[in-house]
Design brief:
Oligomer: single chain
Helix content: 25-40%
Bound molecules: glutamine
Number of strands: 25
Radius of gyration: 25 Å
Number of helices: 19
CATH topology of the largest domain: Rossmann fold
CATH architecture of the largest domain: 3-Layer(aba) Sandwich
CATH class of the largest domain: Alpha Beta
CATH superfamily of the largest domain: P-loop containing nucleotide triphosphate hydrolases
Strand order of the largest sheet: 13-12-14-15-25-24-23-20-21
Number of domains: 2
Amino acid sequence: MARYIFITGGVVSSLGKGLASAALGALLQARGFSVRLRKLDPYLNVDPGTMSPFEHGEVFVTDDGAETDLDLGHYERFTGVAARKTDSVSSGRIYSNVLEKERRGDYLGKTIQVIPHVTNEIKDFIEIGDDEVDFMLCEIGGTVGDIEGLPFFEAIRQFSQDKPRGQCIFMHLTLLPWIKASGELKTKPTQHSVKELRSIGIAPDILVCRSEGPIPVKEREKLALFCNVRPDSVIAAQDLGTIYDAPLAYHAEGLDQAVLDAFQISPAPKPDLAKWEDVSDRIHNAEGEVKVAIVGKYTQLEDAYKSIAEALTHGGMANRVKVKVEWVDAELFDNEDPAPHLEGFNAILVPGGFGERGTEGKIKAAEFARTRKVPYLGICLGMQMAVIEAARNMAGLKTAGSEEFDHEAGKKRFEPVVYHLKEWVQGNHKVERKVGDDKGGTMRLGAYDATLAEGSRVAEAYGTTTIDERHRHRYEVDIKYREQLEKAGLSFSGMSPDGRLPEIVEWSDHPWFIGVQFHPELKSKPFDPHPLFQDFVRAAKDMSRLV
Ligand code: GLN
């Protein structure tokens, strides 16, 4: 039976609950325990798949094809534990399950209510895989007091009562604002937040307090006294230069010790932090810098490309260089020369995306990278744009484009080099889709195998010819243009095992130009950088030496 750590937040959102949970997971692992992390989100979307990256940040896809919150990306990057469908749930999913059961007649004769039907559904979810790990860390999205969050808070309160004493603890993250005028760190918002939590029956065991600087002993004692926690369970979480210092910083503050004490685990196994010391060393002691342009659409919100930014950092760590990322809005050069926007970068990355806006700019970025021999990594839409560029400029298909844009515009303008995927094989069954199907959860999602061509650059980068990577797309490069494109020099160096779906393309006569239909960034870890990002940054580093 797992021990449960429930992580809640108060005062304001965006305090880094996900990061704190992930870092705690890593510290428990460092002490020899197995962990799994879970996110319970109060919003009403069934999953974040249909939310705008502008609003919600990136959608993180799991191996088993769930579209989840970006916090699951933090969990994976810090613990290396592959998240599953059952590690992310929203109110929308919970209510939809309850209503489905109601229609089926599972509760026949009963009046369906938040307590117990919705809370039971949440509790059942929390408990999935309970016998697999030592610790289950469950983060509740939002902040205490949010209307949508109430059923989740009630469910975790009940859950801790259902379990034997000492099986569950509560960790609450808050903010200590610094008031410049009086030179004081304020504890009152935290006191209020804990009061709110206690009013719904949850007494926190550990307080994690975000603050700009250290928390003086006086404030720590005050927090302990007024919030009814032990002084050594008031953990300071100061702003950090890099998120990868979080495990070491939380350890220095005694977070993992406080957690083990709360569970009365004694003697506490000694932690082995060598992995995180190495990660920290690589970040802080980089020798040199490379500049990478991310040419995309969602450039105002960095969270929209969270995993890509992190994977680039990991690639930099592997090469002992700092990767300086600049976000370039593709729309700026939809109708003009991209050179003034792209010169001076050591590499160009075109990420995934949806819809036509900015795609002409992305196609121009691919052309710029190809002709100027700048390392290029195209991810999903970024690969599709590279193929369209090749078709238009090198294979004589002047009107090449993607069906996605014709569908959006409601008229046929392009020769569909990229077409709407109607069927594919998943495991040993066929999946079918139609244009106009529901938008939610209907893409080609999750991990699929690919076979790489011997001697290709990707096979060299991966060091193998069989890989599996995570997908999230509805459109696909049409294999019918393969011969024509390969004649022009674009080789299809990665294919689905049945040879029907192009997974990777590369220009063989280019120093480093690769397009991938999948999302390699989702599997990169600071202690295990993804081979493509590692090699891409190496190519950028080589390039920076040339200029
Ligand atoms: N919009 C494209 C598709 O659906 C690309 C998706 C993506 O980049 N994730 O195929």
